[in-house]
Design goal:
38% of the residues lie in helices and 17% in strands. It has 216 residues and is α/β, with parallel strands linked by helices. It has one domain (3-210): Rossmann fold (3-Layer(aba) Sandwich), CATH 3.40.50. The protein has a seven-stranded parallel β-sheet with strand order 3-2-1-4-5-6-7, with helices on both faces. Strand 4, helix 3 and strand 5 form a beta-alpha-beta unit. Helix 3 (76-97) packs parallel to helix 4. The structure holds NADP nicotinamide-adenine-dinucleotide phosphate.
Length: 216
């Protein structure tokens, strides 16, 4: 299909991890527009910068937004600026701008967690802000103000190097570890998104939690 006939998919946080896997997976099907601070992306910039967010909203027309960029294990200001302020801004502004299409917010199963004794502060911020993003997403999905579908995806552990404490390792390496589960491949999230986007026009998957299951 000619590029100009393809639907446009905007993916944030597309220099590695889930965003990169989505860009690779969807490149043939959609006209993919990618955003990150580094790497081979269409728009290089910092999503915690309001001027950069405004520029994206001004310049990019998207049929599908994968609202994916986030940090884990950072200080409160950085976490709230990216994980809620930037994602919330993009969700709201693209919802306003789009006449039809789909916004997919990458949340986390952490959004559904009630916390635990000894939970470190950076984990509290991450979980609470993912929970806030999920609520925002769900309200847009439920409001149905226009012909734009909104989905929150809430995965558990994915095999990426998000945060300093988490590293992406090979599946073979994981199978040797004592962990009772194996993280999902980032490309699996792209497959789930593909399935969500292919639902009939009269339904929307507004929220989906994906848990890791035991090894064997
Ligand atoms: N990995 C997991 O176990 C897991 C589980 C549940 C949910 N999630 C969610 O899945 C999504 C993707 O996570 P991931 O694991 O793929 O993370 P990742 O590998 O660390 O990738 C994060 C992406 O966000 C970009 N980014 C970070 N800060 C940015 C900023 N200020 N401005 C612009 N781009 C920025 C990074 O690119 P640059 O550094 O080049 O800017 C990178 O492309 C996130 O929403 C995360 O919360 C992850």
């Amino acid at each position: 299909m000619l590029a100009e006939n393809k639907q446009r998919m905007l993916i944030t946080g597309a220099s590695r991890g889930v965003g990169k896997a989505c860009a690779d997976y969807f490149r043939d099907k959609y006209q993919v527009i990618t955003v990150a601070r580094t790497g081979d992306v269409t728009y290089r910039g910092d999503l915690t910068n309001l001027e950069f967010l405004k520029k994206l909203c001004r310049e990019v027309d998207a049929d599908i937004l994968i609202n994916n960029a986030a940090v884990y294990g950072k200080d409160f200001q950085t976490t709230i600026d990216l994980n809620l302020r930037a994602t919330g801004y993009l969700l709201s502004e693209f919802y306003k701008k789009m006449t039809t299409g789909h916004i997919i917010n990458i949340c986390s199963s952490s959004a559904n967690s009630t916390g635990w004794v000894g939970m470190p502060p950076e984990r509290i911020w991450y979980n609470a802000l993912k929970s806030a993003l999920k609520t925002l997403s769900k309200h847009f999905a439920d409001a149905k103000l226009k012909n734009v579908k909104v989905t929150s995806i809430e995965p558990a552990r994915i095999n990426t190097a998000i945060g300093e404490s988490l590293i992406a390792v090979s599946e073979e390496e994981y199978s040797k570890q004592t962990l009772p589960w194996i993280p999902m491949k980032p490309s699996y999230i792209a497959e789930v998104i593909d399935w969500i986007l292919s639902q009939p026009a009269h339904v929307v998957i507004s929220s989906i939690e994906i848990q890791n299951f035991k090894k064997g």
